Amino acid sequence: MQDSVDRIGALLQATGIVSWEADPQTRQFRYVHPHAEHLLGYPVSQWYEQDFWAQHICDDDRTRVVAWCHERSQIDDVYQLEYRMRRADGGVVWVEDVVSVMREEGRPIALRGLLTDITARKQTEELLRAEQLQHNRAIEALRESEERFEMLADAAPVMIWMSGTDKHCIYFNRRWLDFTGRTMEEERGEGWVENVHPEDRSRCITEYGDAFDARRSFVLEYRLRRFDGEYRWITDYGSPRYESDGEFCGYIGSCIDSTERIVAERAIRESEGKFRALFDLNVLPIAYWHKEEVVDANDAFLQLIGCGKSDLQGTVSSHPIVRDTRHALAAEGQRVVRCERDYRLHDGRELSVLVAASLLPEEDDRGVVFVVDLTERKRTEQTLRELSGRLFQAQERERTTIARELHDDIGQRVALLCIELEQLARRAGDLPDDGIRLMQELKRQTREIATDLQHISHGLYPPKLEHLGLLSAIKALCGELSAHKKVRIEVGATQLSTSLPRSVAVAVYRVVQEALHNLVKHSRSTEARVELHEQDGHIDIAVCDSGIGFDPDALSSKAGIGLVSMRERVRLVRGTLAIESHRGHGTSIRMRIPLDGLAHEKGESP
Question: Is the overall model pTM greater than 0.85, yes or no?
Answer without folding.
Answer: no
